[in-house]
Each structure stands twice: as structure tokens, then as C-alpha cells.
């Protein structure tokens, strides 16, 4: 499971769509997203006329923006926007445009992390008397359903009023479970409409591969039609999805964006690997820490990759650690090849006459065919023969598991063929020994 956050506007659109599809439930969500426009290649911002045309187009496609007061706030995957004075309430469309224009592209520090505001969410301003809290979280063996009658900005100080139940993955949500979390809701009409909403949301959560659905606050409003029936309205939402289920939900998620965490943006090569990971049943990860570093890692297994990175830091060479990278889940040869090519393009990008090392490490595999995965890496090494030589690169390999001896032999033969120095080790050598050897090689220049 890979948990990926989506922006609030996308989360609300998705919830509205799946609850209508799943349970015929109309959720009165109206939402618009305003994004920063990109300038030309020189880095200059777009001219005012272009920005005005953009806002005019948004308005033309969403005329309801003129019919009611509005709320606007950043849609950047960080919370407590109200406490940070980043929410404007009860505003006209012109006031929204003014608010956004003054803040779009500005730098902000949130919880010690700096980033730029590039996206806002706009929706109707809804006066309300009640604020509830709802959260559904996916765990390995169960979903955790939590509900409180005390939602809003002070939820943390009222956490003792939040009721929770665990729903085992092989079981359905029952009326008894719903009653347990709704026990503090005294009004029968409110309880009935909340019951229906939560039941539908929970089923959609499972069916459409959510990993988190949190609304704080959630409120209840009368419908705008003649019936005036009560409807549940999520005023604020957080949604995370299991990106490994992209293939299953491709049509539903087609327009969704999986943005980076606040303050971080991926470089091209990281995006390439993320795209590989999204389409694969295996796990392929790459994070660049220092693109000019001289210690590069390509490690099998998430746990092992952390151990290798920690060892580099513990030995006092953290400033030279260029990346965090791991592959696992028995990736196909073509996937390993493309993954290794991407990493090697980075490792040989900034050649400065100094030595560099590539750590091809891992523990003892249970099921992965070591020789098969090494075949993809070997193909990529041959592609970068000249660059590896120019970069005074030495490769250190440590691996165990099915067919590991053949894999180590293939790696040794490849490096002999391309005239790149290599040392290979099996499971009889401690996993992190090759880190020490790599550092000794760097010290020897």
C-alpha cells in the first residue's frame, strides 16, 4: 500500500462522485480550484491580462460563484489554515480574487518547512450551527472509524469526546458499530442522516481504495430544494488514496493530482521513478538528497535501504550521501533497467574529477530472483560505461537470496567488460561492510 495525499478540492470532488455512484447520496459540495499560472521560459510571470482571462474563464464555468458568499483558503496539504490567518470567510468573488492575487506564489513557513502557495480552494460560505468530526483510516487488518460531536478548530482539546471502532477487513460495518460512534448525537434526525452518510462513506472508502478520509468539520444543512431535507456537508476534508490501486481506478482518478508534500517538489528523475512505481506491482523509490554527492545507493528492500543510509551517516559521510533508493517486490527486468538507468543518469551528471561509489546492496531475498533483477541493472551499467569510467566510479555489491551466486557472477563479468572496478559479496559478508569499503575507496583519492 502506498498512501498518496490529494488536494482538498480533488478530495471533495471525489467524495461527491463516489457517494452518488455508491449510494445515490447527493452531497451538496461545490468547489473550484485556483492555480498559479506559469510564465514564459525566462521566468517572468504571466502578464495581468492573462491572469484576468484565467479568472474570467473560471467564473464563466462556475456561475454559482456570483450567487453566494464564498470561502477561500490555500489547498496545499497543510492544516490549521484558520489559525494561520489563511482563510477568508463570507467574501464576494471579487474579494476572493483580490485575496488570492495577494498571496499566490508567496513563500510561507509551516511547522518549520518553507514552501510556496500555488493552489487555492474556493467554495460556498455555509453558516452552520453544528460541527462534527469524522475519520476513517486504513490499517493492515482493520479500518478505524472515528466520530466526534465536537469538530472544528478545537478538536484536539476535545479528543476525549471522539468515539472509535475497529472494523476488521473481513467484516462489514454494522449498525451496532455505527450506534457506538454516534451515541453522543441526541437529535434523531441528525443521527439518521449521519448514519446514512457514514455508512455510504465507509463502503466507498473500501471499494475505491481510500487509505484516509477525514472531515473536520462535518456539518448538517437543509437541502436547497423544496423538501428542505437534512444533508451532511463536509466543510473540510483530507483524503489519501492507495496509489497501488491506480490501475483499478484509472477512470475515476484520471483527473486527480498527487502533489508533493508541502515545501518539496520532485525533480524530473524522481518523477520518472514515481511513474514507474505507480504502474508497477513492485516498489521502486528514489529521493535525491545531494545531486553532487559521491555515494549513490541502489538497494533492494525498504528496511535495508534505510540501514545503508544510516550507516553512511553514522560513519560521518552523510554530506556525501547523494540519494535514498530502494527496489523490492520482485520488479520485472525492464522495470529494473529503467530504474537503474534513471539513477545512473543522476550519479554521472555532475562529474568533478573525484571518485564516486555506487552501493548495490540488500539483505537476503526470500522470493526475488537476484540474477534476474541484476540483469536489468547490468544492462543499464553498460549504457553508462563511458560516464562511469570518467567519474572514477567503483561499484560495491552485496546480496543474498535465490540465484544470488549467478547474479554476483554476472555483475562481476559486466564490470570487467565495461572496465569499471567492482567488488561483490554474498550473504557471508555483513550487509553494511560494503559501505565501509566504499568510503575507504573515496578516502584513497
Automatic annotation (TrEMBL):
An example Gene Ontology molecular-function term: ATP binding
The ATP-citrate synthase ATP-grasp domain, residue ranges: 2-253
Localization in the cell: Cytoplasm
GO biological process terms on file: lipid metabolic process; succinyl-CoA metabolic process; tricarboxylic acid cycle
Principal location listed in the UniProt entry: cytoplasm
GO cellular component, one term: succinate-CoA ligase complex
Highest taxon, organism lineage: Eukaryota
Ranges for domain ATP-citrate synthase citrate-binding: 264-440
Catalytic activity reported: oxaloacetate + acetyl-CoA + ADP + phosphate = citrate + ATP + CoA
The enzyme's E.C. designation: 2.3.3.8
Pfam families: Citrate_bind, Citrate_synth_N
Keywords attached to this entry: Acyltransferase, ATP-binding, Cytoplasm, Lipid biosynthesis, Lipid metabolism, Nucleotide-binding, Transferase
Protein name: ATP citrate synthase
Amino acid at each position: 500500500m502506498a498512501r498518496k495525499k490529494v488536494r482538498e478540492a480533488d478530495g471533495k470532488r471525489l467524495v461527491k462522485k463516489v457517494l452518488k455512484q455508491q449510494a445515490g447520496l447527493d452531497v451538496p459540495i461545490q468547489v473550484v480550484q485556483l492555480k498559479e499560472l506559469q510564465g514564459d521560459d525566462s521566468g517572468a510571470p504571466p502578464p495581468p491580462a492573462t491572469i484576468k482571462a484565467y479568472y474570467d474563464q473560471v467564473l464563466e464555468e462556475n456561475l454559482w460563484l456570483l450567487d453566494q458568499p464564498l470561502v477561500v483558503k490555500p489547498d496545499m496539504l497543510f492544516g490549521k489554515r484558520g489559525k494561520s490567518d489563511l482563510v477568508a470567510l463570507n467574501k464576494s468573488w471579487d474579494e476572493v480574487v483580490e485575496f488570492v492575487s495577494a498571496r499566490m506564489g508567496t513563500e510561507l513557513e509551516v511547522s518549520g518547512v518553507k514552501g510556496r502557495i500555488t493552489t487555492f480552494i474556493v467554495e460556498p460560505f455555509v453558516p452552520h450551527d453544528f460541527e462534527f468530526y469524522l475519520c476513517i483510516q486504513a490499517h493492515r487488518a482493520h479500518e478505524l472509524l472515528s466520530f466526534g460531536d465536537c469538530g472544528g478548530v478545537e478538536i484536539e482539546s476535545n479528543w476525549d469526546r471522539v468515539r472509535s471502532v475497529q472494523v476488521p477487513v473481513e467484516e462489514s460495518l454494522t449498525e451496532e458499530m455505527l450506534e457506538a460512534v454516534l451515541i453522543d448525537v441526541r437529535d434523531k434526525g441528525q443521527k439518521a442522516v449521519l448514519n446514512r452518510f457514514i455508512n455510504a462513506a465507509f463502503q466507498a472508502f473500501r471499494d475505491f481504495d481510500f487509505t484516509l478520509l477525514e472531515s473536520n468539520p462535518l456539518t448538517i444543512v437543509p437541502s436547497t430544494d423544496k423538501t428542505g431535507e437534512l444533508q451532511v456537508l463536509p466543510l473540510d476534508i483530507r483524503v489519501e488514496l492507495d496509489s497501488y490501486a491506480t490501475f483499478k481506478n484509472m477512470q475515476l482518478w484520471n483527473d486527480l493530482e498527487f502533489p508533493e508534500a508541502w515545501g518539496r517538489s520532485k525533480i524530473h528523475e524522481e518523477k520518472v521513478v514515481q511513474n514507474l512505481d505507480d504502474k508497477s506491482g513492485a516498489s521502486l523509490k528514489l529521493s535525491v538528497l545531494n545531486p553532487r554527492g559521491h555515494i549513490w545507493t541502489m538497494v533492494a528492500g525498504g528496511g535495508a535501504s534505510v540501514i545503508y543510509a544510516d550507516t553512511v551517516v553514522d560513519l560521518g559521510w552523510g554530506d556525501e550521501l547523494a540519494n535514498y533508493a530502494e527496489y523490492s517486490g520482485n520488479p520485472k527486468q525492464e522495470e529494473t533497467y529503467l530504474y537503474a538507468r534513471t539513477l545512473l543518469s543522476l550519479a554521472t551528471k555532475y562529474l568533478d574529477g573525484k571518485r564516486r561509489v555506487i552501493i548495490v546492496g540488500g539483505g537476503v531475498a526470500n522470493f526475488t530472483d537476484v540474477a534476474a533483477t541484476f540483469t536489468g541493472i547490468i544492462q543499464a551499467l553498460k549504457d553508462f560505461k563511458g560516464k562511469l569510467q570518467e567519474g572514477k566510479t567503483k561499484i560495491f555489491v552485496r546480496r543474498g537470496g535465490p540465484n544470488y551466486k549467478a547474479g554476483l557472477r554476472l555483475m562481476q563479468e559486466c564490470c570487467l567488460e565495461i572496465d569499471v572496478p567492482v567488488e561483490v559479496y554474498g550473504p557471508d559478508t555483513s550487509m553494511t561492510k560494503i559501505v565501509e569499503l566504499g568510503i575507504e575507496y573515496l578516502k584513497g583519492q
